[in-house]
Amino acid sequence: MELIENVIIKDNDDKKSEIDWDKLEEINPDIIGWINIENTKINYPILKDNDNLKYLKHSFDGKYNSNGSIFTLNDNPFQDNITIIYGHNMKSGLMFSELANYMNKNFLNEHSNFEIYTKKQNYKATIFSCYSIGVNIEEKNIKSLSYEEEIEYYKKASKYYIENINEIKKIVKLSTCSYLNNHTTPTDQRYYIVAMLEKID
């Protein structure tokens, strides 16, 4: 991905990387973060969408692209208790298509953590829930839940029981289309990968 080569700055010993946020802002001020799941293709900027779902069909530079972008609709991404990040499940394997692999226990074990970077703060995300469900059912299930109840819901909904998760103060929830148990066109099913979000230096 050419963008990665242009905005990821590696130091001399190649052990630490920094993002050129000024260059990203010049490309598109809607770029508010970056998500990276190591050893996958998920290494993309995160766009802030203003409720018009522009980034379902536009790339990070604002140009029309059927791949869309990785984006959030949150008013205060990563400051809100729960931040939801969306991306397409593309047949090409791009965008959030690899989230489907979390239904495999070995993949989950090997990719249980990922990073989110922003201009002001970097975060480590530790996955504690992964499942597939209809989007309307999901919205109904969590509609009236408190934050604490929602956390418990995610734990119970997970396909696999995941241990070693302590107090969860903030959550990031990754969402993409699922074709498991689907009976509609377009699919109404979604993969949800839910992780505890912690600040890192």
The total domain count is 1
Roughly how many Å is the radius of gyration? 17 Å
Poorly predicted parts: none
Q: How much strand?
A: 25-35%
| DSSP E strands, number | 10
Regarding quaternary structure, what we see is single chain
Question: Could you give me the name of the CATH homologous superfamily?
Answer: Sortase
CATH class: Mainly Beta
User: Would you tell me the structural class of the helices and strands?
Assistant: alpha+beta
Distance between the termini: 26 Å
Note the main sheet: 8 strands, mixed, barrel
Q: Architecture, according to CATH? A: Beta Barrel
Shape: globular
The residue-averaged pLDDT reads 90
The number of helical elements comes to 5
CATH topology: Sortase, Chain: A
The sequence of SSEs as H and E is: HEEHEEEEHEEHHEE
Helix content: 10-25%
Spatial order of the strands in the main sheet?
Answer: 3-4-5-6-9-10-8-7
Question: What would a concise description of this structure say?
Answer:
The protein has 201 residues and is of the alpha+beta class. It is 19% helix and 32% strand.
Describe this structure in words.
- This protein has 201 residues and is α+β, with helices and mostly antiparallel strands.
- It has a single domain (2-200), classed as Sortase, Chain: A, CATH 2.40.260.10.
- The protein has five helices and ten strands.
- The strands form two sheets. It has an eight-stranded mixed beta barrel. Strands 1-2 form a two-stranded antiparallel sheet.
- A hairpin with a 4-residue loop joins β7 and β8.
- It starts with a helix and ends with a strand.
